[in-house]
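HUMAN: I'm a chemist; might I ask for a sequence paired with its C-alpha cells?

ASSISTANT:
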Amino acid sequence: MKKIGFLSFGHWTPSPQSGTRSAADALLQSIDLAVAAEDLGADGAYFRVHHFARQLASPFPLLAAVGARTKKIEIGTAVIDMRYENPLYMAEDAGAADLISGGRLQLGLSRGSPEQVIDGWKYFGYRPEEGKSDADMGRRHAEVFLDVLKGEGFAQPNPRPMFPNPPGLLRLEPHSEGLRDRIWWGSGSNATAEWAAKLGVNLQSSTLKDDETGEPFHVQQARQIRVYRDAWKAAGHTRPARVSVSRSIFALVSDMDRAYFGGGRPEKDSIGYIDERTRAIFGRSYAAEPDKLIEDLRKDEAIAEADTLLLTVPNQLGVDYNAHVIEAILTHVAPALGWR
C-alpha cells in the first residue's frame, strides 16, 4: 500500500444532530479536513460529486480552494458523473484547479450511477444520441475531455482577434501539462475496467461493483484490478498504472469510536440492485481494535492489489473527529499494511 487518502461525500443536513448543517459547512469543512489530513501525513483528499442532493456537487471551486490551502497532498474526485458535464468547459476548470494546486489534481470520472432524480442529466441540457444510452453518453463525454487535455490545437482562430494569437489552431486555456496522466475512471465492472486500461487512465474501484461471479466482494474486486492491469500491459502504455479502492474503516481506539462504530455485529457484504437490471455487491465495512483490524484487512485481496486506499469518512461528525479517524488508521493500522 503506497498511498492512503480520505474520501468525503460532503453530506449536510440542518438536523441538530449533524455537525454539517449547510452547504457552506460542507464546503468549508472539506477544506479544513484536507488541511488537517495533510498535516497528519495523509496522501490524498478526495471528494464525491452528487447532483440534486445535500452533498458536494460542483467540484472545481472546492478543488481549487483546497489546492490554495495545501502544499503536498493529492487532491481529487471519486467520482465526477460525466453524463452531466460539458467536457470542454470542464477541461478549462480542471486546468485552472491543477495549476493552482501545482499539479496535484487526481480527477476520478465515471459514466455515473443512479442519482436523486430521474435522468438528471437532461436538466443540464444533455441527451444521448439516437440509439445510445446515458452510459454511452457519459463515456463519450469522458473521451472528449481526455482528448482536449492533450493540449493540441483544434479551433480555427479568428483572423481579426481581440488579442494576438499564437500560430496555428488554438487549444483550450489554461492548459496544465501532465494532467492527462492523472485522470482516473470509476469502474463498476470488469468490462469497464478493461476499457479504462485501453484508454490509458488510472482505475478507481469503490465499495460496490456488479456481482459478476457470486464470490465475496474483495475477491471480485481483486479480479477486476488484475483484468485492468493485464489490459494496461497489453495496451503498451509506458507509464505505470495506478489503482485505488475505497473502504469504510474505523480503528476503535477511544470510547467515542466504540460508541459510534463498535456495534459488535460482524460486518459482511450485501447484495442489491442499482437499477432494474444490474445486481450489485456492496463491500463490507471494517470497525475493530487495531490488531483485529490489521488481521481483517490483510485478508482483503483487493486492498493488497491496489496501490491507493481511500478511507470514506463520516463528514457530518465534524472535522476534528474525522481527523482523528484518519490519524488512528495512519498511526495504528497503515504501517502494518506496508504503508511507507
Remarks:
- The chain has a mean pLDDT of 96.
- The two ends are 8 Å apart (CA to CA).
- Residues 3-337 form a domain with the TIM Barrel fold (CATH 3.20.20.30).
